[in-house]
Amino acid sequence: MASPAIDIGIDTAARQEIAAGLSRVLADSYSVYLKTHNFHWNVTGPMFNSLHLMFEEHYTELATAVDEIAERIRALGEPAPGSYSAYQALTSVPEEEGQPEAVEMIKQLVRDHETVSRTAREVFPLAEKANDEPTADLLTQRMQIHEKTAWMLRSLLA
What we know:
The chain is mainly alpha-helical. 75% of the residues lie in helices and 0% in strands.
């Protein structure tokens, strides 16, 4: 049995374009989540305790965020990507396979949070053009959080 047509005031093409953009935001966000969790587990050195706790706060927030982004994609009527290969194809966040020093972890996460913010900012005009306020609100919240997180991490490097 087919689902009823979606009639939320956004045409199909716009919903698909917005969902495709949100899929990139989701992939970037999940990539930062995974990297942050890795760094939480593997950080060492004099800043261990503070970074270990901070990274936990960050990946916990990101875990909620990826769920919200995926649910918005679904509300737009599109499937949310959910595999490593899909994320790898969609993300702009480089993977870290090694165990960098704590300062390098911070530098990477600054760059990565800024990347997610830029990706969200690229999608924002699509939502705005379609009068998709829920997506615009979600993107605004994500940009605010990623930019604040990047600022806080960057402050550790001063």
